[in-house]
Amino acid sequence: MLFEMVKNTMMAALGAQEMLREFIEGLVEKGQLSESQGKTMLSDWSEKITSAGSGININISELIDMVIGKMNLATKEDIEKLNKKVAALSQRLAAYEDSRADAK
Known about the structure:
The structure is a single chain. The chain has helices at residues 2-29, 35-71, 76-103. The protein folds into 2 domains: 1-72; 74-104. The protein contains 3 helices and no strands. It is 89% helix and 0% strand. The protein is mainly α. It is rod-shaped. Keywords: Coiled coil. This is Polyhydroxyalkanoate synthesis regulator phasin.
């Protein structure tokens, strides 16, 4: 669901960028903007989109972390800690079983 929202947002941004490009090209063709003004506007728009995209990535990452935290899901670090504990317990159990076998 979150992926779809992000995807739709990015597609809307790309669609808006394409529409703006076509609009500016139309203004240039009609002589209402010079070619250099059109290029400047497109360049400014692209820079704003790029910087906004970086901000979106950061915000999405923070949102995902927050949602995972609220869902009380195990993180990669939590799973790694548990794997180490299981490995240590497995070694202790094997040593205990070996000592019991030697005692018989």
